[in-house]
Amino acid sequence: MVPGLQDRQYYHYDRGEKAERQVIVHAWERSPVLIVMAGARACAIPLHHVAETMRPLPIEPVAGTPGFVRGVSVIRGAPTPVVDLKVLLEDGENSATYGRFVTIKLGERRVAIGVDGVVGLTNLDSAQLGDLPPILRDVAADLIEAIGTRDAQLLVVLRAARIVPDEVWTTLAAAEATR
Description:
The protein is of the alpha+beta class.
């Protein structure tokens, strides 16, 4: 048992069996996630993919990159690509400014994700995490292909990230407030 984590009980209605059954989610089946904001959307990034969060650094544009790549920033002495999360989600113009950078671990490399803000950390159980819509759900197929062609590891991390709908966010916030 991990200190501070408690098992949770949920009731699940199975339509196939027309019966309600109790489901216990053990504390060790919970995953820490970093909640970030991109426009009006809250997004959950599995914490094991996150290297750090920081104030945004200067960005140098790079010619010939897809629209979601804002440019390159020097982070900890290494040139690091900066991806605009809001552009990926909304297929719009690159943001002029970001509230934070979230650096993502891709093996030995890093990619900075530009976000409007970092809300904080929370734990989601595996059932909750699996029920949330994937962050790339509404992203155009050509953007997903462009990501995969240029960086398959980044695509894996983005596929692991989830959008946190308003009703789930409200429930999470209420649960955190009672602790």
